[in-house]
Amino acid sequence: MTADPVRVTGRVLIVAGSDSGGGAGIQADIKSVAALGGYAATAVTALTAQNTLGVSGIHPVPPAFIAEQMRVVLEDIGADCIKTGMLHDAAVIDAVAESLDRWGDGIPLVVDPVMIAQSGASLLERSALSALRERLLGRATLVTPNLPEAEVLLGEGIADAAHMEGAAQRLHALTGAAVLLKGGHLEGEELVDVLHDGAETLVFRHRRIPTPHTHGTGCSLASAIATGLAQGEELAAAVVRARLFLLEAIRTAPGLGSGSGPVNHAHTLCRARLASGPGKGTATPARE
Question: Which CATH architecture has domain 11-270?
Answer without folding.
Answer: 3-Layer(aba) Sandwich (3.40)
